[in-house]
Structures are given as C-alpha cells and as structure tokens.
Specification:
The protein has 182 residues and is mainly alpha-helical. The chain has two domains: 1-91, Rna Polymerase Sigma Factor, Chain: A (Orthogonal Bundle); 95-182, Arc Repressor Mutant, subunit A (Orthogonal Bundle). The protein contains nine helices and no strands. It has helices at 3-11, 15-37, 40-56, 68-90, 96-99, 102-123, 126-137, 142-149, 153-180. Helix 7 packs antiparallel against helix 8 (142-149) and helix 8 (142-149) crosses helix 9 (153-180).
Length: 182
C-alpha cells in the first residue's frame, strides 16, 4: 500500500493506516529534520507536530494528489524555519546557572559548527549546493534528485562528491583561521 493510500485511509479514520504511515515515514522525516536542527528533542517535537499538522489539514487534502513524503518534508521544513525565526527574534533563553556549565558551551560549539556548515554550503557552486540540499537536507534519492535537477544519476553523484569535498576543504580552512585568532 502506498503512502498516499495509507493517508487516505488514515484521514477516513483508520487508526492502523495512520500508525503504519507514521512508522513508514518516520525514519526519513526524522533524519531530514534532525539534520536541520541538530537537536534530538527539537527534531522529535517537530516530527510529531508535522504529523499533527498533516491531520489538521485533512479537510483540505486530497491524498491522491501528490507525494506524502514531500508534503511531510514541506510541513517539517516550515516548522523548523518557524523555530529558527522565533530564536532569532528572542534569542535563546539560557538561565545564568546553565550558562556557566559545560552543556551550554557544547551547545554554543554545535551552533557555531552549524553556522560554519551553512556558510560552507553557501560557498559552493549552485549545482553542487542544490544536489547536496536535495540529497542530504531534504532526503531525496539519487534518482529523484537527478529528475529534479535534470541531470543523470552519475552526474548527481559526482556533484555530491565534489560538493562534499569542497565543503570539507572550506570547513578545514575556517577551522584553521579560528585557531589562529588570539
């Protein structure tokens, strides 16, 4: 049974279909969200909210139109972006006691690393960046990515490889610059 068929049955009240849909789509959706937010708790919250939003939108959905995995990724990406916007506006709330502990420093380092990865990704040529975004951030297969960018699967693999190599170089360079600072 396809995800679209499972969604149609779930929207009609079939609890088993809903459970199977969640079980079948959870791993890829969780990986997609986790890569964006780099926090297990936040990723789990976003994935759970994604399924809630999917069901809340039930009256407007025609599950036969479109890919369920793509719809889930779109909802999840929007939720992650909303979270980033809230954090950007108010900033992270860290109690003074917690700010003096190592976990806050670890989180600061992870945040700096995420920023470095995003900066390196932005430095890539458009083709490499697009392939990496589709493959690693959005979770598309090589075949799906090739169809989206209008290239062969071999070309997609090559762009991904070269892009990751270049990102590794950029990240190594930025790490060296950071160590040279006083």
């Amino acid at each position: 049974m396809t995800d679209s068929q499972l969604l149609a049955r779930a929207l009609s009240g079939d609890r088993e279909a809903l459970e199977r849909l969640c079980r079948d789509t959870w791993p890829k959706l969780y990986s997609f969200v986790y890569w964006q937010v780099q926090s297990r708790d936040e990723a789990e919250d976003i994935v759970q909210e994604t399924y809630c939003r999917l069901l809340a939108a039930a009256p407007q959905l025609d599950p036969r139109n479109g890919e369920v995995a793509g719809l889930l990724r779109t909802i999840a990406a929007n939720l992650a972006r909303d979270g980033w916007r809230r954090k950007a506006v108010r900033g992270p709330l860290i109690p003074l006691d917690a700010a003096m502990e190592t976990p806050a420093l670890d989180e600061a380092q992870r945040s700096a690393e995420r920023l470095a990865v995003r900066a390196a990704l932005a430095e890539l040529p458009e083709g490499q960046r697009r392939v990496i975004e589709l493959r690693l951030l959005e979770g598309y297969s090589v075949r799906e990515t090739a169809a989206m960018v209008g290239k062969s699967e071999v070309a997609v693999r090559s762009l991904q490889y070269r892009g990751l190599q270049r990102m590794a170089e950029l990240l190594a360079d930025s790490g060296d610059r950071g160590r040279r600072l006083p």
